[in-house]
Fold:
Amino acid sequence: MSGLYTSLTMAARALSAQQLGLEVTGNNIANVNTAGYARRTIDFAAVKPESSLSAGNGVEVQGIRSIRDRLLERRVLEEVPTEGRAKELTEILQVVEAGIGTTGQSIDGRLTEMFGSFSRLADAPTSAVARADVLNTAAELTQSFHEMAGRLSDAQRQADSRVRNTVEEINSLVDQIANLNHSMGASGPEGRLPLQDQMSTLLRSLNTLVNVDVVNRSDGGVDITVGSGRALVIGDETYRLEAVSQPPTGWAGVEAGGMNITSELRGGRLVGAIEARDVNIPDYLTRLDTIAYELVNQVNAIHQGGFDQLGNTNQNFFTPLASAAGAARLIEVDPAVAADSRLIAAAGVNEAGDNTVAKTLANLRDSLVLEGNSATLIDSWSHLAFRVGRDTRAAIDGSKAQSDIVEQIDALRDAVSGVSLDEEAVQMIKFQRAYEANARFFSTVDQTLSILFSIVGR
Amino acid sequence: MDGSRAVSATMRLRLALEGAAEALAHAQVEGLLASEGAVEFALAELPQMGSITSEERDAVRRELEAAERALLRCRRLGSTLADYVRLTLASHSTATSASGYTPDARSDEYAGRGVNARV
Structure:
């Protein structure tokens, strides 16, 4: 039978427990906007009765826990690298897209103007004004090619610079995580709670930069590997990444312990920058070079068959190029022609007033000379501009879709905060049912859209 | 049905789908439930085939493309949601998991004892 002393002890214990509960609650409220903070709960337990006739010995605190849904955190860590890659790609490609210019105002416009000047030369093959016009439009066109190649090369250099900066950011995070690992090993279980909050934030930041694998340690810390199991953090030891210039391009490759692991990386901003630098922009540059190279070859081939005002034949209009590589950067009007407009070959025979070659040059505008003789020079430029727009759109859509998913997981986490596991499950099921109600219509919507697209076209 | 009605009908569908996607993205159950009716209504209001005027064709196409993007977003988010719900329920031992995920022992260990101290 419990005495007065037992009752008082029980009441004091209960008060102490409830006071601690209030402190925990206050701490949760104070940290409501702290990034990475996981709410704490306090675990109470009934104290075992001394005998079967006792009503019990009240309540005691078993411990304070940080509510972390490991599953949810794992999902977030899985999604953020894809989001980071798409965001980086979007940021770089948007700059490229802006540099491409609008339809009719970029290289396509300059091509049209040059072919127009050849057409005007055909109307007045002996006119000095028409000849000067041809040289002006050709010079503007070559200038546009140079500027476009320069803009693309600048974007590529900026992407490379972002690769190098991102590697530095990764190393900084790796150092912080190793320090946290050290602190966690040195502190008790309850002291680890705020450290776990910081760790959660750091891991998310790191995964945004590069996709890493995380293994939890028994002391609350983490070991981290990247690529094909290359160690980044083991306990409080760090293995830093390095951005090392690789021959022949000089672009930075990512190395771990002296090994180039660039091809092993799978996601994150780092991969987005590498992809833009090594895949997207080189593709655009190659296409631009091909247009410039083909323009030089086609114009020269026609021009060589004509006669200038001095009776010369077999002359180039543009300086010949050895290969397509770098053509957009190197294209220029032949210096002799540029210095003397009389050297433009407008005639097909050595007679003043003949305009055969000038007409043929003007007609080159509509000749299918590229992409397996299926596209004109202007078409090919339009395809390049479309490709840049399409890649940018795809990156924006991908970025938005991933941000949606990450935001959704975050929102779901917030939505279930402060409810019991049972309530959480009920909320989840309610949400699932609401989605299923909508999803019933999705296939109908899909079919209807297909039908309507068949009417209005895509 | 004339062109302007075609545009407004496709716009309603697009808005309904975007509403559903937003509700999914922000985990708003009420918004999701409300969007069901909106999608159903928009579907019923869609114009008859072949009666879209050539002047309205571009506007309708733009709405359809936007609706298609919204539908894709709904499906992506819905798929993540379904995945998340399945795994969450499995982890709380309230559903069987097809993924082989082992329910967390913590849920049994603290069953009936954990008191949520957050207000």
